[in-house]
Design brief:
Elements lengths: L2 H35 L14 H13 L3 E6 L4 H7 L2 H8 L3 E6 L13
Parallel strand pairs: 1-2
Amino acid sequence: IDTRSFQTVSSFDGMLAEQATEMAKQTLADYETNAKKAGLSKVTTVIEYGSPKQIIAKEIPEDNQVDLIMLGATGLNAVERLFIGSVSEFVIRNAACDVLVVRTDLENQLPKKKDN
């Protein structure tokens, strides 16, 4: 193994992880600001690493006395969910608290209402 290539990949992965963490921090700061502007007084943000399914459904609720999990679900059909796996579906089935799923399309937009 060429250790120079390994070190380059490792440092690249580390740089990507740092950028992702910074983006997550900024996004959560924006969400927190919006929540407080909407009148919520107690807002806690958390960044965790690992399996999103387990962390969202079990770890964060247990560690933070969560009584509602709110998350988004893209417009995947049943076949796509079967192959891709659905974090939302796992959380719905395994969380010990209530779960509110906000359905969005693949661009994270609310689906357009169909004319009847």
